[in-house]
């Protein structure tokens, strides 16, 4: 029976990977990519690459992100993305032709086709259910993520084609024109990126998710537009921003493991959150920042203390986001004492169990 493969699903999945990197690959760009591919040969890797590159990127910076996303999504395989197939312009439903290709070339094409389709299955699966091979692919996709913070207007102003009238520049322009009326000059606030602070729970109850969440934090810490602070919550609080600055994810996680010897134990979220606020948050780390807690909310200490410290954090931060990998479980309700105490002081409560959930978290953090 011929294998069926949907190129539209692949382009949509590639766009989701790009959005996780902060590239605004919205629906209209995906539509343009689909239209471009309908005029090309989807059995050729180069055609799929250029169809996406010429339609999903809007600036030189996005081109570099596209190359990273394409390699992470399809894998660094030579040859075609899919086996030689017929293309329907209306639906782009790709059906492999029996008997096409043979030997090593056919194997490469089938492998690449399977990689593209498996990404969409991988995107929504709980990370604790993945095989070692699937986890390796997940690691590549997580490494491609970026976590740009929400944009904010600063007090500093700069020349702009629109905004408030810049009286000084307008007057100087009139004087330079000999007193004749001249075009109004304007200025607008400079846009800056808000700081992002990640508090990652590495206690025993988070054992199955801690690796993926730390890799997510590593990808977030690599953004350069604004500082990102990362803290590990074990039996004690540990600042791991320096370890996360290492370029290689595996080296970074090994450094974190050395810095956090208490991973896998119990945790008292209220006490650790108070320590964070006393030592770092109150002094400026959390002020005006987007603070993200990645935890199942299992509190072994004083629940009322957790509620008090969450209220304190909410007053300092611009937004508080809580990502709970248990939220996606059937029948889940945030009735555990720790989670129930924290939720009144949380702006966004999201899942964190899969690649798709972490991509959505990245979108929430940047204000999408």
Mean pLDDT: 81
Straight-line distance between termini: 42 Å
Q: Per CATH, what is the topology of the largest domain?
A: Rossmann fold
Radius of gyration: 24 Å
Q: Tell me the overall shape.
A: globular
CATH architecture field of the largest domain:
3-Layer(aba) Sandwich
Strand order of the largest sheet: 9-8-7-10-11-12
Percent of residues in beta strands?
15-25%
Number of helices: 14
Question: What fraction, in percent, of the residue positions are helical?
Answer: 40-55%
Strand tally: 12
Write structural notes for this entry.
- The chain has 368 residues and is an alpha/beta fold.
- Helices cover 47% and strands 16% of the residues.
- It has 14 helices and 12 strands.
- It has helices at residues 7-20, 27-37, 45-56, 60-74, 103-123, 132-143, 167-176, 207-221, 241-244, 249-259, 269-285, 303-316, 337-342, 355-365; strands spanning 4-6, 85-86, 93-96, 151-160, 164-165, 186-193, 196-201, 228-233, 237-239, 290-294, 319-324, 348-351.
- Strand 7 (196-201), helix 8 and strand 8 (228-233) form a beta-alpha-beta unit.
